[in-house]
Specification:
The structure holds two protein chains of two kinds.
Chain A (H helix, E strand, L loop, with lengths): L9 H29 L4 H6 L8 H32 L6 H22 L1 H4 L1 H28 L8 H22 L4 E2 L5 H4 L9 H23 L1 H11 L1 H6 L4 H27 L1 E2 L5 H14 L4 H23 L11 H15 L16
Antiparallel strand pairs in A: 1-2
Helix pairs in contact in A: 1-14, 3-9, 3-10, 3-12, 3-13, 3-14, 4-6, 4-7, 4-12, 4-13, 6-12, 9-10, 9-12, 10-12, 13-14, 13-15, 14-15
Chain B lengths: L16 H4 L4 E10 L2 E11 L4 E5 L6 H9 L6 E6 L2 E2 L5 H6 L2 E4 L11 H8 L6 H14 L1 H5 L10 H13 L5 E5 L7 H16 L4 E5 L2 H7 L2 E6 L2 E7 H6 L2 H7 L5
Parallel strand pairs in B: 3-8, 3-9, 6-7, 7-8
Antiparallel strand pairs in B: 1-2, 1-4, 4-5, 9-10
Helix pairs in contact in B: 4-7, 7-8
Classes of the chains: A mainly alpha, B alpha/beta.
């Protein structure tokens, strides 16, 4: 009976205290924010941060939209982490570099197109071309990665492909450095209707474009995974590869397809990065990669809808968090702490719900 | 899986009478090793169309290895596996499934996060004759009406008995020539074991060739035509079900006390 009644250990107390602290900080910050919004001169707000600036409605909207756009991008990258984890059970840390390869491909091709004058004259066509090219390059990269680095390690303990993926990550980074040099590659200027804020509801057109492209990619992926024979086979392999092979499914082919699809999604995300930030360097993949991995964990790794939700959560949180929670608390230079906020979201979600927002809690015997 | 005439649905036409005498599945002097450990020793088995046969044996007698060898998940060191008279020893699992060898795994092993329909669809993964697949699915519903009611549920939410029906249904969707059953009584409540054997008998009466691997000798022999007893990788008894049930060595060979 002793094992069935849950004993509260010191670790449990420690975690509870951490949860309470996290909650108090968030609530206090948010309360101060609300207090400031009501009246910037009220005593609570002045006590929390005497120099606080009021956030206008327009700024707030801008932050939300930026957060959603970046979040959608994180979500697309997170899908690749999540799918590979689902099928092979290890985290492919080189996936962030695949995304960087996509962004690089986009930068190189779009500036070539701009030189030839097509970028301005037929922007949409160029964009489609650049997205498709980036998807192709990323798919090839991801498939080669699987073939060369991971397949020989199939069946080995999971730690081994995990460490290998870190090696692959360095390899890809340095390959790009060697091929393209260490200078910052820029995307050509976007057409006016994308940079102009007056297109729709005062939102910058490029951000709408990013969200739309991400939504299209997600819809395509959803269709592939839920409605096609290949998708069914992918889900079957993710759940039980041995039985899947008894159905006549070629497990290796399905794994390759999984890497290919994850790579294609990273390719799309790479172009979205280009649209949002307009410049890329060989180390660009690291931080978005880690944030996308966090998104996958926040959403519940292995769950595709969860990856997208996790991406949006982290994107919006890192966009709003600094000004809505840190600034009212008197933290100086809060916008520079956006990365910290993103990972704080990860830590808080793991403290409260270790399996992620949409993750399944597996019984102990299935947890490996 | 169509009643009485198992061959009518298969992609290849029904076999001529002269070949009918050929076993559907045959093991010839199969030896299997795991590393240096000798598991199967000169195992000979032959299963004919329409039969319900069982392979009996205790723990570590080599039953699972026999199934794995038949499916190509383990390669025999010597000897041959034949399906419809064709040597498949060096073919992949996928090819063997395509030739009509399908297994209902131990403990059902459904894809629990997939719906019942998706599980059945995956059973027919290698087939592209969509009309036949649809009519085979109808036959599964005829056999197990409860499966139809649960079609759009996640299979993990079904009861044990329903899951068993889906597991058999999924295997039947491959339109197999021979259905392998791995330990149908394992890990089930007694009432479910009884139900499970009734299901097996039901599909056998509908014309399916069934090869069952089982520990529960009395249960298996009560429905089987013939059987073999495997002991430490060697076939020690080979007889009709009736004779095996009456055989004095049956229980002894189970406990591993019979002389070899």
């Amino acid at each position: 009976m002793q094992l069935t009644t849950k004993q509260r250990t010191k670790v449990d107390w420690f975690l509870t205290i951490l949860r309470v602290i996290a909650l108090v900080v968030i609530c206090a910050g948010f309360a101060a924010f609300v207090a400031q919004m009501i009246d910037s001169q009220n005593p609570f707000a002045r006590w929390a941060n005497p120099d606080a600036i009021n956030l206008t409605g327009e700024q707030f909207q801008g932050l939300v939209v930026t957060g959603l756009a970046q979040g959608a991008m994180y979500g697309l990258i997170a899908l690749g982490y999540s799918m590979v984890y689902g099928v092979l059970g290890f985290i492919n840390f080189a996936h962030g570099e695949v995304f960087m390869v996509g962004a690089m491909t986009g930068a190189v091709t779009s500036s070539k197109l701009a030189e030839a004058g097509y970028w301005e004259s037929s922007f949409v066509l160029c964009l489609v071309l650049v997205v498709v090219l980036s998807m192709v390059v990323c798919t090839v990269t991801a498939v080669l990665m699987e073939r060369v680095a991971y397949r020989p390690l199939r069946g080995k303990p999971r730690l081994i492909p995990l460490i290998t993926s870190i090696g692959v990550s360095f390899f890809l980074q340095n390959s790009v450095l060697a091929l393209l040099g260490s200078t910052v590659k820029s995307y050509p200027d976007l057409p006016d209707w994308l940079t102009d804020k007056r297109t729709f509801l005062e939102i910058q057109g490029s951000k709408i474009l990013v969200v739309v492209v991400a939504a299209l990619a997600m819809a395509g992926l959803w269709y592939l995974v839920e409605k096609t024979k290949t998708g069914k086979a992918m889900r079957a392999v993710a759940e039980d590869a041995e039985i899947a092979s008894l159905m006549g499914i070629d497990v290796n082919r399905i794994i390759v397809k999984t890497f290919a699809v994850g790579g294609a999604m990273a390719g799309v995300a790479g172009i979205l990065w280009g649209l949002l930030f307009r410049s890329v360097i060989h180390t660009t993949g690291f931080l978005p990669g880690i944030k996308a991995f966090s998104s996958a964990v926040v959403g519940g790794i292995g769950n595709l809808g969860g990856s997208m939700a996790g991406g949006l959560t982290i994107g919006v949180a890192e966009s709003l968090g600094p000004l809505m929670i840190l600034e009212p608390l008197g933290v100086s230079g809060p916008s520079q702490l956006r990365d910290a906020v993103a990972f704080a979201v990860l830590i808080i979600v793991l403290l409260v719900r270790p399996s992620g927002i949409f993750g399944e809690r597996l019984p102990p015997e299935e947890r490996t | 899986m169509s009643p009485n005439t198992p061959e009518t649905n298969s992609p290849t036409p029904a076999q001529p009478a002269s070949v009918q005498s050929e076993p559907v599945l045959e093991l010839r002097r199969v030896n299997t090793h795991y590393g240096a450990v000798h598991i199967l020793k000169d195992v000979d088995l032959d299963i004919y169309s329409g039969e319900l046969v069982c392979l009996l044996g205790g723990n570590a007698s080599g039953k699972s290895t026999t199934l794995r060898t038949i499916l190509g998940m383990v390669k025999p060191t010597t000897g041959d596996v034949k399906v419809n008279g064709q040597v498949v020893t060096h073919q992949s699992t996928r090819d063997r499934v395509a030739m009509g060898v399908t297994m209902v795994p131990e403990n059902r092993r459904l894809f629990k996060r997939l719906t019942v329909r998706e599980n059945l669809d995956l059973g027919a993964y290698l087939r592209s004759d969509s009309d036949q697949i649809a009519s085979d699915m109808e036959r599964v519903f005829d056999l197990f009406p409860r499966v139809k009611e649960r079609l759009n549920q996640k299979s993990g939410t079904l009861s044990g008995g329903e899951q068993q029906m889906v597991a058999i249904g999924r295997a039947l969707m491959a339109n197999p020539r021979v259905l392998l059953m791995d330990e149908p009584s394992m890990g089930l409540a007694p009432a479910l074991v009884q139900q499970n054997f009734e299901l097996i008998q039901q599909i056998h009466e509908a014309g399916m060739t069934v090869f069952m691997v089982e520990q529960n000798a009395n249960m298996a022999l009560s429905i089987a035509d013939r059987g073999w007893v495997l002991q430490t990788g060697r076939v020690v008894l080979d007889d009709t079900a009736e004779n095996l049930l009456a055989h004095p060595d049956l229980q002894a060979s189970y406990l591993g006390t019979a002389e070899q």
